[in-house]
Prior knowledge:
Largest sheet: 4 strands, antiparallel
Amino acid sequence: MLYADHDGIGYASATVTPTQFVAIFNKVKFLNADGSAPQSSLEKRTRLTINAGAVSVAVQDNV
Length: 63
């Protein structure tokens, strides 16, 4: 599986069960122009799901 977001930084977490693999990518916001932190640090969350025995990846944005 390959997922790329070339203009962001963040982190991912994954859950693996016998029936599926789920990865959630959390894209965080950059600092404000004055160097302060934004009020909300999360910009976007993307979930990728692969069911057991499947070759397709389900992508859900803004979850």
